[in-house]
Amino acid sequence: xxxxxxxxxxxxxxxxxxxxxxxxxxxxxxxxxxxxxxxxxxxxxxxxxxxxxxxxxxxxxxxxxxxxxxxxxxxxxxxxxxxxxxxxxxxxxxxxxxxxxxxxxxxxxxxxxxxxxxxxxxxxxxxxxxxxxxxxxxxxxxxxxxxxxxxxxxxxxxxxxxxxxxxxxxxxxxxxxxxxxxxxxxxxxxxxxxxxxxxxxxxxxxxxxxxxxxxxxxxxxxxxxxxxxxxxxxxxxxxxxxxxxxxxxxxxxxxxxxxxxxxxxxxxxxxxxxxxxxxxxxxxxxxxxxxxxxxxxxxxxxxxxxxxxxxxxxxxxxxxxxxxxxxxxxxxxxxxxxxxxxxxxxxxxxxxxxxxxxxxxxxxxxxxxxxxxxxxxxxxxxxxxxxxxxxxxxxxxxxxxxxxxxxxxxxxxxxxxxxxxxxxxxxxxxxxxxxxxxxxxxxxxxxxxxxxxxxxxxxxxxxxxxxxxxxxxxxxxxxxxxx
Length: 483
Description:
With 483 residues, this protein is mainly beta. It has helices at residues 132-140, 149-156, 163-178, 188-200, 452-456; strands spanning 33-34, 36-37, 39-42, 61-77, 80-93, 98-103, 115-119, 183-185, 211-214, 217-221, 225-233, 238-241, 251-253, 262-263, 268-272, 280-291, 297-300, 307-312, 314-326, 332-339, 344-351, 357-361, 364-368, 372-379, 385-391, 397-403, 418-420, 427-429. It has a six-stranded antiparallel barrel with strand order 4-5-6-18-17-7. The radius of gyration is 23 Å and the shape is elongated. The chain starts with 32 loop residues before the first strand and ends in a 27-residue tail after the last helix. Mean pLDDT is 77; it is low at 1-55 and 410-483.
């Protein structure tokens, strides 16, 4: 059941419309890192394929089931009116659980059965939106968080509300802040609710991540404890799974070297690497069941409108981190995350070895001294696919791919209300819904993208964490850390 009274419930919804100042088609077929969502692939000197990448590392992962509870609204753009469906989407959480969500990305179409990942605000349009906190307030003070519709109607002075009109009014109020949209609810009571929510809203802080690890990649010498990796979670306790390769002898411990199998918010985890261990890498995974907080953002793993959580059942959340070690030489760890404030991708390289690590990124050479770290922001145009590669000695390679999707607005310079997805010639009608039939089964007007078969063919190897992402290749015995 969704908790209407729990402060930790959360959900989001979606809508599709054209974006202002966007002269190029949206590149939906790219591998997207949520939230940053980024994918990294490491290839050694031998050219061997990367080991299977760790799963999503930053909280909840869910699949969009479609727009389920909605009513009509009208978007006024460029002298034209567009009727859309406005309301609550639902998602099914990987590992168990359900979400209800509203849209905060009105100009971007949903993709049928799109995969979504919990993402920090600063890696979505919320990061540069001065009204992001007001959207959180609306979610906390309206449907479905407040499921007593009589009490909500009385507080807002709207007259009788139904689930559909309450959802529509809430979505309209959110769009006015998320997209600066000129939008009205068709139902008079829903419009009154939207006006009341918009006028009453005040800033509220970004909610805590359901589960994340920081950093997602660490490095160091064999024979020592490598870390720490800090746990951030709203769950009371998380389970800690050690590296799958027990033969390596790597243990997960606390700072004093005591093996751990559970952790809490703020716990620090260490990789205890045996002396004489062959140069290599290993990962740990933490998992919990919790209610994801209302107001957490969810970004599409493919190009699909960004959502914000409005309600959550008890759901499975997980996170992973990787350690790389060597006996001597440079020992790099590389992570990446979207930087919406600077319009690019931050690539951070740390070196816990005893020799400098020299690498090339974006056509320039960089050197990280032993014990130091270096962050380089690679500029990326809004809505453009990126393929950022770090290369180093002995075939060292890390590649991060995705699409920068940081902007949204309710006003377009285009005269029409259409949007188009790359590699799909069909022009899509701007909508507030997905292609999965919801209440009443009538989503013909919502016009979601049919590019899913193209996108589904793209590998979605995603590693997400509070803002960072990294893939690793577990070295075979005998390889050096720089390979």
